[in-house]
Amino acid sequence: MTTANRTGQPEHLPPGGPGRVDDVDQTARPGVPMEHAPEPFPTAPERVVVQRPRVEVLQIPGRKKPAWVVSNAQPPRGPAGRMRRAAFRIPEHHPSHWTMLLAADRLEVRLHSLRRFLGVAAGALAGWALVRALEERRAARPRRPCAAGR
Amino acid sequence: MRALAYHGPGKVSVTRKPDPEIEHPHDVILRVTRAAICGSDLHLLHGLVPDTRLGCTFGHEFTGVVEELGREVKTLHRGDRVVVPFNISCGRCFFCERGLFGNCENTNPSSNDVASGVFGYSHSTGGFEGAQAEYVRVPFADVGPTRIPDDMDDEEVLFLGDILPTGYQAAEMGEIKKGETVIVFGSGPVGLFAQLSAWLMGAGRVIAVDRVPERLAFAREYNGVETLNFEEVEDPVMTLREMTGGRGADVCIDAVGMEAEGSPFQRAMGVKAKLEAGAATALGWCIQSARKAGNVSIVGVYGPPWNLVPIGTAMNKGLTLRMNQCNVKRYVPHLLKHIREGRIDARRIITHRFPLSGAREAYHLFEKRTDGCIKCVLLPHGEG
């Protein structure tokens, strides 16, 4: 731990070099004030069409207009999707909106794991049944007499 | 294409996904050349961000080359190299017109309260696919991306997409005046840039607080700051008060967010039981370590719906609390100038580079903070 205080102790100044205090003037800082007078961004599009989603996009209640762009990735699906749809019927200032979404996340993971487990289990069961069937078939086949010689 | 995919808390892998397509006339498709792993990606990895759906691709800090253009894109051309802000902003809404690009109201259908659309950051920020992939779709390409100057390489400017402007905005929101004492909680990438920015704004003292010795050593070496390892002291707030003459710091910056260490109670409530949105330990320490009438600046990520924060202390001390998602686009020209003139060497914080196929290993290394890891960068198309 390095300690010092502002009176008497050595100052902990940054490594030397010009311009280290370039932005002392608060008015020269690019984000001051954080909210400036409205002005259009110079290269912003003049006219925007609203993107039509290809999948179901959940929208928070209370939005007055649709978002101009959306993502078509990972639409709500299955039981977790149903839970997400239910969550999106609740405004986001209610904690239940968020807790339901977190619960849906966990449910999706559990169901995914379960599906994978069942897939592996079904594969193993099918393999075992196949081996058993082959064995039974082999056992049921009439044995050929052994070649003479002894 | 190959892309990182999320499979549940702690699990990611690289899988095959369909190539992104132009879905809106203002889109471009980028071939991703560099994609960083951000500290806030770990919140996703740990399942702390609501509506993080299986199969989604993370990655919101990246550079790339324009491969395809929507028919209305006017300022970019095929082959342009660009760095892209993590915010997706329309440039025209109430907030964008006032410089609040991180609060754009036209790019996130899922929330009015969380943020604008963000690349690769759950469906709470719109569900847009991230850039830890070979290709990525970038909406509103005439607003967000900035062309990389021909004489600069991608890694010099990569962090203009998030952590460098975020660290700078953190210091700026602290309203630092010449000679003031600044405490920065968190010495990860954002914290490092907040420390550096505090110097640029004329701070007289900068104190970095963390628990990872290698990160504190790096902060001392990279930024020439004082450091405090909070695990080496009994009471970090008392120690910081002693270090600041008993009064507290003029400005405290929270560059940690929801997975803070330091309070078993907060960890149990927020990270394990999820009864609050993560552990707000660093924010509590900010409020407790600031002097009366000081400023607290928050850029650490916290989720909805609530956190246990000593707001009464903040009120009684007359603190000013300032916070926001970074309005990246506003800072890019200014910080580009700092990089070009040698005042900020952002590339130096990259400690590890991985091909996309090594993404899982990169996440685990970054998560464990082993091997002196400060920042991991993925190269989806190799060095080229």
Strand and helix map with partners:
The complex is a heterodimer of chains A (150) and B (384).
Chain A: H1 78-87, H2 95-140
Chain B: E1 2-6, E2 12-16, E3 28-37, H1 39-45, E4 62-69, E5 81-84, E6 87-88, E7 117-118, E8 135-138, E9 146-147, H2 154-157, H3 163-173, E10 181-185, H4 189-200, E11 205-210, H5 213-223, E12 226-229, H6 236-243, E13 249-254, H7 264-272, H8 281-289, E14 290-298, H9 311-317, E15 320-323, H10 328-340, E16 352-355, H11 359-368, E17 376-379
Parallel strand pairs in B: 10-11, 10-13, 11-12, 13-14, 14-15, 16-17
Antiparallel strand pairs in B: 1-2, 3-4, 3-8, 3-17, 4-5, 5-9, 6-7
Helix pairs in contact in B: 3-4, 3-10
Structure explained in plain terms:
Chain A is mainly alpha-helical and 150 residues long. In chain A, 37% of the residues lie in helices and 0% in strands. Chain A has helices at residues 78-87, 95-140. Residues 1-13 of chain A have low confidence and may be disordered. The two termini of chain B are 17 Å apart. In chain B, α3 packs across α4. Chain B contains 11 helices and 17 strands. In chain B, the strands form 4 sheets. In chain B, strands 3, 4, 5, 8, 9, 16 and 17 form a 7-stranded mixed beta sheet that branches. Chain B folds into 2 domains: 2-162 and 327-379, Quinone Oxidoreductase, Chain A, domain 1 (Alpha-Beta Complex); 163-323, Rossmann fold. Chain B is 26% helix and 22% strand. By secondary structure, chain B is an alpha/beta fold. The chains are: A mainly alpha (150), B alpha/beta (384).
Strand content of chain B: 15-25%
Q: Biggest β-sheet of chain B: count, sense, barrel?
A: 7 strands, mixed
Q: Helix/strand-derived class of chain B?
A: alpha/beta
Mean pLDDT of chain B: 96
Domain unit count of chain B: 2
Mean pLDDT of chain A: 85
Distance, first to last CA of chain B: 17 Å
- What is the name of the CATH topology of the largest domain in chain B? Quinone Oxidoreductase, Chain A, domain 1
- The strand count of chain A comes to 0
- Gross morphology of chain A is elongated
**Largest sheet descriptor of chain A:** none
Which structural class do the helices and strands of chain A define?
mainly alpha
Order of helices and strands of chain A: HH
| Total number of helices of chain B | 11
Number of strands of chain B: 17
Compute the gyration radius of chain A: what is it? 34 Å
Elements of chain B, N to C (H/E): EEEHEEEEEEHHEHEHEHEHHEHEHEHE
The radius of gyration computed from the alpha-carbon positions of chain B, rounded to a whole number of angstroms, is 20 Å
Distance between the first and last residues' Cα of chain A: 91 Å
- The residue fraction in helices of chain B comes out at 25-40%
